[in-house]
Automatic annotation (TrEMBL):
InterPro entries reported for this sequence: NADH_Q_OxRdtase_chain4, NADH_Q_OxRdtase_chainM/4, NADH_UbQ_OxRdtase, ND/Mrp_TM
Transmembrane segments: 6-27, 34-54, 87-108, 115-132, 138-157, 169-190, 210-232, 244-263, 275-294, 306-324, 336-354, 375-397, 417-435, 464-481
Record-level GO cellular component terms: endomembrane system; plasma membrane-derived thylakoid membrane
Family membership: Belongs to the complex I subunit 4 family.
Keyword Cell membrane recorded: no
The NADH:quinone oxidoreductase/Mrp antiporter transmembrane domain, residue ranges: 134-413
Subcellular localization: Cellular thylakoid membrane; Endomembrane system; Membrane
Function field: NDH-1 shuttles electrons from NAD(P)H, via FMN and iron-sulfur (Fe-S) centers, to quinones in the respiratory chain. The immediate electron acceptor for the enzyme in this species is believed to be plastoquinone. Couples the redox reaction to proton translocation (for every two electrons transferred, four hydrogen ions are translocated across the cytoplasmic membrane), and thus conserves the redox energy in a proton gradient.
GO MF annotation, one: ubiquinone binding
Protein name: NAD(P)H-quinone oxidoreductase chain 4
This protein's UniProt keywords: Membrane, NAD, NADP, Plastoquinone, Quinone, Thylakoid, Translocase, Transmembrane, Transmembrane helix
Keyword NAD: yes
Length: 525
């Protein structure tokens, strides 16, 4: 078989979706058969992802590879067009890895198991499609498709306020999606030719004011998904009510869709506008880091505390995207993958702890480490990764963003000093609230009422296996980052070079229109 001619990406996207449609036909009374079926489908699809990319993908090629394009609705110029480059490939692998582990994490689900696994598999294909499609209209469709399973997974299997959380999620994300549709249609019809192919759109000569309007529209949509403060409030509510496998999908994959789209659409397709908006992204990133870290301090609900921690860490992605350096953009991509692994591990452990204690309130915990030594050890290791302990992936990613931004020549020295200082404050805050969280859960005096009424059994082999699978790449990337960075460096270097070409344009236009400098830092030192 010639790997270059086989429709790998189409197969990888459609396999879990097609498999989900067969679930109602499976004879199963207690859910045991359907969960094994779903796990096997997840493993097969992940194996196809790994095989396709590691045998048919050239790391040194910055352009799209494994490209497929088939006419779908010719009257609307809607094509099934997919491909992968250094921006999408690591996130497709991450999606397959996290979703397969989420299926294994869903083993205890006994309420409507067929519907649950149907939604998980359908979302599996939809999330991979978001990272692979190269047609703007198709991108909007798969972006919307992914929302539906999450809504039902929250509203049916969530906590006491699940309907509120699910409704808030769908309103925020669907509302943001309208900006994607409007911007996509506007870009497609712009100029003499009508096309929704992303590569063709990127070659169009958009006027600067037009780029700025499009950039703002996309930024609103992706600010919801990333999320960027103040469009973040859906996330703590969604995490507060979700089950462990849904947590893993939200933290591990869903937030990365916003960061990926921000690079793919905003930076790559609208580079001149990116030069104007980059300082705004930096400021928003700093706000995310500091505000979310401080808010996490005040949370007494364990899920909400970790949720705000996720928002804080995604601030580094914004700063890296806006750095105009190879190192900074590389750090942003690494941070997305790293946080996907770390966030999924922490939220899985939160779910495992809740299953035993039946409480999420830190005030009601205490001393459980004496009875749950394995969970204590795993929670500590994953928290160390989240607070960017050297030797783990979070440290490398945040360090790359730090150095990349500090060495950027696209901003004034004063602005860089302020931003780097505030980033450092955020890095200092993170271990404080994470270590205090560990102390309140596992150390101190045992809650006698909790111990007397609940069976605080330690982690079972399935749970240990899931965390081990997540810690291996976390530590592996931390010790040898090239394991991951070599996959996308060619693409990020090419993109950074294009973005840097837009910086002189911004400097020249500031000389012609000095009032612009009031809202953006000066270019150069």
């Amino acid at each position: 078989m010639n790997i270059t001619n086989f429709p790998w990406l189409t197969t990888i996207i459609l396999l879990p979706i097609a498999a989900s449609l067969l679930i109602p036909l499976i004879p199963d009374k207690d859910g045991k058969t359907v969960r094994w079926y779903s796990l096997i489908v997840g493993l097969i699809d992940f194996a196809l992802i790994v095989y396709a990319f590691y045998t048919g993908y050239d790391f040194s090629n910055p352009d799209l590879q494994l490209v497929e394009s088939y006419p779908w609705v010719p009257q609307l110029d809607l094509n099934w067009s997919v491909g992968a480059d250094g921006l999408s490939m690591p996130l497709i692998i991450l999606t397959g890895f996290i979703t397969t582990l989420a299926i294994l994490a869903a083993w205890p689900v006994t309420f409507k198991p067929k519907l649950f696994y149907f939604l998980i598999l359908a979302m599996y294909g939809g999330q991979i499609a978001v990272f692979a499609v190269q047609d703007m209209l198709l991108f909007f469709l798969v972006w919307e498709l992914e929302l539906v399973p999450i809504y039902f997974l929250l509203s049916i299997w969530g906590g006491k306020k699940r309907q509120y959380a699910a409704t808030k999620f769908i309103l925020y994300t669907a509302g943001g999606s309208l900006f994607i549709l409007l911007s996509a249609l506007t870009m497609g019809f712009y100029g003499d030719t009508v096309t929704f192919d992303m590569r063709a759109i990127a070659l169009k000569d958009f006027a600067l004011n037009f780029q700025l309007a499009l950039y703002a529209g996309f930024l609103i949509a992706y600010a919801v998904k990333l999320p960027i403060i103040p469009l973040h409030t859906w996330l703590p509510d969604a995490h507060g009510e979700a089950t462990a496998p849904v947590h893993m999908l939200l933290a591990g994959i869903l937030l990365k869709m916003g960061g990926y789209a921000l690079v793919r659409m905003n930076a790559q397709m609208l580079p001149d506008a990116h030069a104007y908006f980059a300082p705004v992204l930096v400021v928003l990133g700093v706000v995310n880091i500091i505000y979310a870290a401080l808010t996490s301090f005040a949370q007494r609900n364990l899920k909400r505390k970790i949720a705000y921690s996720s928002i804080s860490h995604m601030g580094f992605v914004l700063i890296g995207i806006a750095s105009f350096t190879d190192l900074g953009l590389s750090g942003a991509v690494l941070q997305m993958v790293s946080h996907g692994l770390i966030g999924a591990s922490l939220f899985f452990l939160v779910g495992a702890t809740y299953d035993r204690t039946h409480t999420l309130m830190l005030d009601e915990m205490g001393g459980v480490g004496k009875r749950m030594r394995k969970i204590f050890a795993m929670f500590t290791a994953c928290s160390m990764a989240s607070l960017a302990l050297p030797g783990m992936s979070g440290f490398v990613a945040e360090l790359m963003v730090f150095v990349g931004f500090a060495t950027s020549d696209a901003y004034s020295s004063t602005f860089k000093v302020i931003v780097v200082f505030l980033m450092a404050v955020g890095v200092i805050l993170t271990p404080i609230y994470l270590l205090s969280m560990l102390r309140e859960i596992f150390y101190g005096q045992e809650n006698e009422e909790l111990v007397s009424h609940q069976a605080l059994i330690d982690a079972e082999p399935r749970e240990v296996f899931i965390i081990a699978c997540l810690l291996v790449p976390i530590i592996g990337i931390g010790l040898y980052p090239k394991l991951l960075t070599q996959m996308y460096d060619a693409t990020t270097v090419q993109l950074t070079a294009r973005l840097r070409n837009s910086v002189p344009t911004l400097a020249q236009q500031k000389e012609e229109a000095p009032q612009v400098s009031l809202s953006a830092p000066a270019i150069g030192n």
